[in-house]
# Entry
Amino acid sequence: MSIRSARSNRILKSIPPREYRRLSDQLVPVTLRFGQVLYEPGKAIRHVYFPIDCLVSLLTAVDRRRTLEVGMVGNEGMAGMPFILGVGVSGVRALVQGAGRALRMAAGPFRIEFDRNPALQQALYRYTYALMAQISQTAACNRFHETEARLARWLLMTSDRVGSQEFALTQEFLAHMLGLRRVGVTEAASALKSRNLIDYTRGKLRILDMPALKHAACSCYQIVNAVFTRAQRT
Amino acid sequence: MGPATVQTARRAPAVPRLAAGAAPAFAPRVNPHQNHLLDALPARDYERLAPHLELQTLKLGDVLYEPGRAMRYVHFPTTAIVSMLYVMEDGASAEIAIVGNEGILGISLFMGGESTPSRAVVQSAGYSYRMKAQLLKNEFGRYGTLMHLLLRYTQALITQMAQTAVCNRHHTVDQQLCRWLLLSLDRLASNQLTMTQELIANMLGVRREGVTEAAGKLQDAGLVEYRRGKITVLDRPRLQARSCECYEVVKKEFDRLLPYRPL
# Structure
């Protein structure tokens, strides 16, 4: 994998070249499959992942089956956050939502690198802040915002991170992410369709009108974007 | 210090405002060790911070942080409880996390954020110690025990926030009130909370009628007494049974990560 593509994870890209060289020896390019589970709650974190073009969902669950996506990790971040906080176990389920490439590092070597690389520490602490803001936003969003607006926001966030306006998506998957019953997903998706914001047939979703979809999304979309943008400024 | 000072200190709940650096003649009722984070520091680290800890009397409804404003202090509650509220554009708010004597307010500081996205409001009056933000950053930069404790606390807080998110999605308002009551009691010495209906409304993200309804349900079930702004928990085990699992999840995580074991 060329240096250039290997550094299209934004956290890794922010590391000065000399420190990055040391890090890169330990980074293994991997391809993650849709539905692959990277972490289960309570299980040890064995690797951390820096997405390049894949997308990872962080999910919590209650009542055994009711779930909610509380965060999304794309190439702006790293999956395995608890590890940098000194906690070797994940609290959430991390699931690959968008298949693609990532750079993977084993937990032990990552710990060593993290402890001696101030640039990596800074970048990851700033990312932790941004991720916490995303999770807080999700908590508030689920108290106040309507299903349609939440769906619009989710589609936009996904689109930003996978770099495409078109993706394959089952209603059941969406139901998991948004913490809805399928009928709720169907209704919300139909509403967006009837407004010509999306096309959604046979599991394939296409965003037709980005600006209008942004307008339909709840304010959380812009707010979370702003937090991430600020966090990335060195 | 003479007898007069001792007498003042004994008269509860009035505790003399300790000037930074002042050493009490005996271990006062309120002291920084009541905050578990500070208590877990090795003696030398604690001694370094102690002169910079200022005792504060926090009143119900006091705002410690506004979103987006620079934070000049961090806060270590001892008997006070503070809610981190997320404030929406239209002014509506909902609690994201609760912070008491197990934690600190202001973790954004060492994660590179100079401000916090939430508003910090005192939900239960009491004492707290504040310290200048820059001093915390300096201490964090020493890579010592405090840094590790703060990072572990951050993880506990993230779990709490994530659980709040899923709870807000799937559970009822009265269940959320249960969760909040239980988490608060864990951080208090008593089973009584003095609240205002408005504060509960801001915390739950509902209108005042919603509070009356939620508190009313718990009262009807004999779990709490809600009178003149005071909520008294009457039957804690049954309150726990009524709560959604979210309380247990957060409690387990906090118990696992904190109390802080020596590192």
